[in-house]
Every structure is written in C-alpha cells, then in structure tokens.
Specification:
Two copies of one chain form a homodimer. Chain A is α/β, with parallel strands linked by helices. In chain A, 26% of the residues lie in helices and 26% in strands.
Chain lengths: 331, 331
C-alpha cells in the first residue's frame, strides 16, 4: 500500500447536506520529517458540529476549507515515528480528519490506554462527547441531588453520558429522543427515569407528565420545538447548557417561542464548546473514565464500515438515524 | 376628604390591554392600628412588569388578583403614624399600588431623603428601575472598559440608566429606541454613542453600522426582532441580561430566530428580577444616587395627572408613548 484515502469538502451545502458535498481522494503515504508521527486511523468520529463547520459563517471555529480534508476526531495507531514521545504501536487519538492516515508533530496527539477502555470509546464516552456531557452538566447545570434534569438527543453520544452522570448525582433524568426504540434504550439500558419520543405527537403533554415537579436543568442538543417544550416546564433559577441545535443545522427555521420563560423563571442559559475548557479535561476524564471502565456508564455505537461510507453515515447522523455514537471503522 | 380613590384589576386582558380591564373605586380613608402608617401617595410608578402580573400564569410573582388594588410602586408622605419609626411628614417609597393612599406596617416602606434628589426619582433612576439597570449591567453583563454594550428601550427608565452607567465605565454604548425624537434624546442628552430607531426599517444594518467591533453585552428589555438584530452582532462570550420582553407582553408571538448565535458565540443569557437581589440594593443605590444627585445620570419623566389617568398612561407605556419614566402624579 503506497497510497491512502481521505475525504475533502467538495462544496458547501445549500440547505440540506448531500453526499455530493464530499469527495473521496487518494494520496501517496507521506514520509515524515524530524519530530513527526504517522498515524493509521482505526476510527473516525462523526459529530454534529461538523455540519456547522461546513458553512462559511462566523462561528467558534474557522469554516472547514473547501478541498481540504474534512475536520474530525480520530483514534488510531502510530505506524511510524520520528518523535521520541511516540513509539510504533502506540494507540493515539487526534484530530486527523476524515482520513485513513495522518501526520502530526505530536502536539495534537494523545496516547490512550486501551487496557480497560476500548479504543473507540476515546471518541465517545471518554472522548470529546463525554467531556462535552461532563462539562455542560457539572460546570453549567450544576445539578443538586433531587433536581430534575432534561436531556435532548438522549440516546446520542453526548446525551447518554449526560443522563448517566446526572443519575449518578441523584437526579431525576428525563430524556428526549426520536422513536420508541431509542426511548426504550435510554430508559432500559441507560437507566433514565423517563424518555419522551419527540415524534410521538404530544411533546408538551409528555414533558409535563414526565416532570411533575418541573425541570431544573436542561442539556440542549436539539433546539426548536424540543427546546420550547422543555422551556415551558422549567423551574425558577433553572440552568440550560446549550450544546447543540441540530434541528437547525441544515438551515431550517428553528425559532424559540418560549423566550418569556427565560425571564419569568429567571433562567440562565450558556452556550459552550468543550474545547475551550481543556483545563478541566483531566478532571472530567477521571470521572467518566472510571465510570466507563467499571461499566457504570454504558454507551452504544453505530459503526459505518470504511471511509467511503462516511458521508452517508454523516447524513444519517444529522437525521438521527444513528444509535449512540456514530463512528466510521477504517481498518 | 373622608374617602380616597384606588384602581383595581376588573378583568384580565384578552390579548391587548384596554382601559376596561381597570376600575376606579372610592373607599373610606382607613383608620390605623398600632404599628401602622397611613401614607398619602404623591406619585405612582407605572412599569412594564405590571402587564405580566395581569395574566394568570406561572411567573416570578403571583398574578395580580382580580378586584384587588393594582400592584405598583409609590412615593408619598406619611399623614398619620402609629409606628415610632415613621413621623408625619416623612417622605416614603413603598408598594402601595394604584391608589391615592395606603396603609403599611412599615416593613415595606422606606424613608427617603429628598434634599438632593426629588421624590419622584425614587421611583425611577434611584428606585426600582435604576436598581434594575445597575444589577443587570454590573452583575450579569459585567462590562469592561472598551466593551460595546447595547440597550433596548434605551430612552426608558431602565435603559437610560443602563447606558449612562456603562458610559461611566468606559464602554461604547448603543441604544435602540422607537422614533427619531427618542434617539436624539438618547444620544444628545444621555450621551450614548449611537442610537438606532427600530422603526427605521434597517434594524440589522443599523446595528451592524453602530457596532463595528461587535457587541459584548446586551441589556434586553424588548425581545423579538430587536433582540434578534442585536444577537446577530454579538461577540464571543457576550453576556445578555434579560430584563424584559415588552414586545410580547400583549401575547403577540415573539419568536427568537438567532438562537444559533447563543451557541456559536458561547453567549451567557440570564433572566432576572431585581427584587430577588435586595442584598445588593445599598451598593447599587450608592452609585446611582451619587450620580443622580450630581447630575451625572440624567433622566426624563412623563407624568400623567391624577389617578384616573393611570390606565391610559399604562397603555401608552406598553406602546412606547412615554418618554423616560412613566409616572402618575396623585397630588
């Protein structure tokens, strides 16, 4: 093998993303200079934030460049190293993008221990999604025992961890997910107290029934009507960690009508991105890592097979077709 | 005079408030028991929050009861006292409602010094509106020198103080108000750096032009399209003090479309009501009182003459017909 494959952004979406926005390319395997590390990626992480990067708008990160390798978290193995900190065979996570291989100077690579935790989990419950869950819950929502916490996209890589961390803190946890199957998983496997199927047609009533004492904290991944329904039941001084707004990522209108609740209930809402809070990563990783290694945080993965399947899997993620963490297996 | 007049809530509004929702009544002047104080009110304060109280919905305060005297702040003079802490002739502020007179046990009355500050200002710049401005700006927005701060309803009793306090902190201050006359006042008299007429038809462009470096803090009194236009220019880590949403108080839909900015710019939004933060009142009063007494905070009043004019004046306030603090003069 003298070449490897990667996927670039071919064009920006005009509304809904299509597979035509991506292009699979081959490139010769690079040679590495002093200090560099060559990584063979085993897994590619697909995440909703990538949708925002595809737009050429002001946001928390520069837009994904056209004709450049799509941004993305990766987990893999060092196959060549000119860097004393990394040896061939080391398992590493990085941000090497939608690509079978990648070169890094080591500054963006992190060695991980796969003795008790599988490599793929470092892209999920003990990776960026897990840290996102931990940060939003513990640093913004700050739940107290007995609080009722709502989580949208509850079966997803972030939402599932949010709920399990909240349960571990003695909270009543209400998930919102799309479809009966996901809701059963959220309740039966992840141990949430209730889960509302937002496709069930009774969102407001169902939220009210699931939260007889109102809602003290909301971890929001979706926005739009799902967020409005939870807002309607928020208690005074409730906290909202605004993590994602996937319902509007394709440009659909996503108005919030219950703004008045933010005032009347004196709520605090904070938008965040976990990568700006890396100083807390060790603290969060200690908690989530221990809970994952001991089986107390459960998670599920949906795995697409091979890089060429990444665009289709990404489209599915935006439609909620995945179940738990969406990965692409590269080897 | 053996009777006095007061106004009760006769019916709840069905959408837009009308004068028919109120009823003027006469009552005999009460005799006072031990510990009580009888106050002749000189001024009644009219404030947007009263509109929310008229609805029978869950909010930060119990709804205004039907057939009871409308809630409201008052400034007046003690005319009879069985309470050693109050003497006849003392000037006091209280919450005696839409009423020419009121009885209090003293716990809700505060003596005020009118040597350097006129009595009416204790319902405005050095009263609840001024403290609201001070709290939202200093405790939620926390402006730094050089920040750009936007204030909606900028010519109002709260907005005018917000902007002048922010100017005193070295900020660039942008007001939003309805009409050229209000905007001229906001800039020329209150000293804001810019003021946008939201009726001018170019809200988004005007905000952009007035805030070439973006907006770091928003003091929101209005909601709806006004808030959306400011959201579109918010800088990373901006803070929003959500004080009022007057554009929706009559039940008009008031969706916010730019929720995505809260996420992409990692904003913090906090709804608040100043009466829950009374422990900071002395600190706020020291600052605003000094600035008002020395003429460094300017304000304007719109004064309706006589209690019977209160309903009409209140309707005008909700339509932005007032200029500065809306008062009713009772004596």
């Amino acid at each position: 093998m003298s070449t490897y494959q990667h996927i670039v952004l071919a064009s920006r979406p005009n509304g809904v993303v299509s597979v035509d926005n991506f292009r699979l390319e081959s490139a010769p395997i690079p040679s590495i200079s002093a200090g560099q590390v060559l990584v063979r990626n085993h897994y590619l992480s697909l995440d909703p934030y990538m949708r925002m990067r595809m737009e050429d708008v002001k946001s928390y990160a520069a837009p994904q460049a056209l004709d450049a390798v799509m941004v993305g978290g990766t987990a893999g193995e060092v196959v060549a190293s000119n860097n004393p900190k990394f040896a061939v065979g080391d398992k590493v996570v990085g941000m090497l993008g939608w690509s079978e291989m990648g070169v890094d100077d080591g500054s963006m690579l992190k060695k991980v221990d796969t003795t008790h935790i599988p490599l793929s989990a470092y892209l999920g419950a003990v990776g960026m999604p897990g840290m996102t869950a931990w940060y939003g819950l513990t640093q913004i929502i700050k739940p107290k025992e007995g609080d009722t916490i709502a989580v949208s996209a509850a079966s997803g890589a972030v939402g599932g961890v949010v709920g399990q961390l909240a349960k571990a803190r003695g909270c009543r946890v209400i998930g919102i997910a799309g479809g009966k199957e996901k809701c059963s998983y959220v309740m039966d496997e992840l141990g949430f107290d209730a889960c509302i199927d937002y496709k069930g047609g009774n969102l407001y009533k169902d939220v009210k029934a699931a939260a007889p004492n109102g809602i003290d904290g909301l971890f929001e991944n979706v926005g739009g009507v799902v967020m409005d329904a939870v807002l309607a039941r928020m208690n005074p001084f409730g906290r909202i960690a605004l993590c994602g707004l996937i319902s509007g990522y394709d440009g659909e209108p996503m108005p919030i009508h219950n703004m008045r609740v933010l005032l009347s209930m004196r709520l605090t809402l904070q938008g965040f991105i976990v990568s700006e809070h890396m100083e807390l990563w060790p603290q969060g990783l200690t908690e989530t890592g221990t809970l994952v290694a001991t089986g107390k945080i459960k998670y599920r993965e949906t795995i697409a097979d091979g890089l060429s399947k990444a665009p289709e899997a990404f489209l599915g993620l935006l439609r909620g077709k995945n179940f738990g963490k969406q990965l692409v297996k590269l080897i």
